[in-house]
Design brief:
This protein is mainly alpha-helical and 450 residues long. Helix content is 76%, strand content 1%. The chain starts with a helix and ends in a 6-residue tail after the last helix.
């Protein structure tokens, strides 16, 4: 077996690595996806606003950061793809199945995530050309768009952009991409936040998001907050294992973990200060679910001064968030195919892109053009989403905590933590995080309900 097959393209990993800043921006880019701009606002709206946001922060600290550090440390120690990270870090061969899960999960996720990324590109173009706001029947527009062939075209466009970045490698592609788009994302966030909080009646939305009412919380809220803290950091899907393999030895993983967590939190905070003031200002329920972004918010933008401009900025923001995450997701199976088959990066990228597109076709069609693509009342798109997000991700995260907490002999050295912080981290991995992740699994899979 060649050196390449023993661990990915070893020479490339030695030469093509993240800079310290580039790594943190790329990791933040993987977490600031559609989840915090799309999902976070409506689950916050469903669970009482400010109190839920505070609960989310607590969950981010007790479950998100410990697992995040574990993934990065395993990845840097293994210096291989997500499939071989656990074995190369010192685990026994039985852990290979967990590595394969860490590759399969993002591959499946990308097949439907890229569809929604395509929607954001379409809406960004439509908003700036004026087509989006020419007809105020936004529900009809969304239904008409998703029921035709155009989602496939935009899905392919999003995939080609994503593949075009990943094919350039780590420092020349992913790092440069995030160094340009993450600062752009911050600027757009600030501009839209200022516009939102200065709308008439925005004070009610700000109050809803920042003044906690703990009577609104229940056991269901706690599990939802735990789940989102886990998912918003892109845990359990091989991204941070893969990115960790490209991190320089002198990089402090503890500091990087904290920076990534803070970046994710700030993004969620500003997203809340965009969504809630806007929804309250225009009388939109903050718990409308996924339709909030593509139906309710366009209606709000159409009613505000310079709405087409700010609506366009909003959907560009969504598109940037979607693409930075998509790039991170794609790198995981690309890294694996380079390792497993000793392929070049270009060949690996376009092979994976082609397979992702083909798998995504039934998901896209099931949402409109071919509604018969359903099983047990769920569209094909929803089934892939459910299986990956609600079952495969929590299982992957749970197994990572068990490996790092109980079976990984090199954890202390790989983490780079001082003795006191290492003991705290190990305690969290052994006794707190596994229980909480297991509860998330039981909840998201529907085994326990409240």
């Amino acid at each position: 077996m060649s050196a390449q097959r023993n661990g990915i393209n070893t020479n490339e990993r030695k030469k093509d690595r993240f800079s310290s800043t580039g790594f943190i921006l790329a990791a933040i880019g993987s977490s600031v996806g559609l989840g915090n701009m799309w999902k976070f606002p409506y689950i916050t709206g469903e669970n009482g606003g400010a109190a839920f946001f505070l609960l989310f922060i607590v969950c981010l600290i007790i479950i998100g950061l410990p697992v995040l550090l574990a993934e990065l440390a395993i990845g840097r120690s293994g210096r291989g793809s997500a499939a071989t990270a656990f074995i190369r870090a010192g685990g026994k061969r039985g852990w290979k199945s967990l590595g394969i899960l860490q590759v399969l999960t993002p591959f499946l996720i990308l097949s439907f995530y890229i569809i929604v990324a395509g929607w954001t590109l379409h809406y960004a173009v439509s908003a700036f050309t004026g087509n989006l706001f020419a007809n105020t029947d936004f529900a009809g527009q969304f239904s008409h768009f998703t029921s035709g062939y155009m989602p496939l075209v935009w899905q392919l466009a999003a995939l080609l952009i994503t593949g075009g970045v990943v094919i350039l490698g780590i420092s020349g592609g992913i790092e440069k991409f995030n160094k340009i788009l993450i600062p752009s994302l911050v600027i757009l966030l600030i501009v839209l936040m200022i516009r939102a909080v200065t709308l008439p009646g925005a004070e009610a939305g700000v109050s809803f998001f920042l003044k906690p009412d703990f009577s609104q919380l229940n056991a269901e809220s706690a599990l939802v907050a735990l789940g989102h803290a886990f998912f918003s950091l892109s845990l359990g899907m091989g991204i941070l294992l893969t990115y960790g393999s490209y991190v320089r030895k002198e990089q402090s993983l503890g500091s990087a973990t904290l920076a990534i967590g803070v970046g994710d939190l700030i993004y969620a905070f500003i997203a809340g200060l965009i969504i809630f003031p806007t929804t309250f200002s225009f009388g939109i329920a903050p718990d409308e679910g996924p339709s909030l972004v593509f139906i309710a918010l366009p209606a709000a933008f159409s009613a505000m001064p310079m709405g087409s401009f700010f609506g366009g900025l909003f959907f560009i923001l969504l598109a940037i968030a979607a693409l930075t995450s998509a790039v991170s997701i794609l790198e995981v199976p690309v890294s694996y195919t380079m390792e497993r088959f000793s392929w070049s990066r270009p060949r690996s990228v376009w092979t994976v892109v082609g397979l992702v597109f083909l798998l995504g076709v039934p998901s896209a069609l099931s949402l409109g053009l071919v509604p018969e693509l359903t099983f047990g009342g769920k569209a094909f798109f929803d089934w892939v989403d459910f299986i990956t997000s609600n079952i495969m991700l929590p299982i992957g995260g749970l197994m990572i905590t068990i490996f790092a907490g109980y079976f990984w002999k090199g954890a202390a050295e790989a983490s780079g933590l001082r003795a006191g912080w290492f003991r705290v981290w190990l305690f969290m991995l052994r006794y707190i995080a596994p229980i909480l992740v297991f509860l998330v699994l039981l909840h998201t899979s529907g085994i326990i309900k409240f």
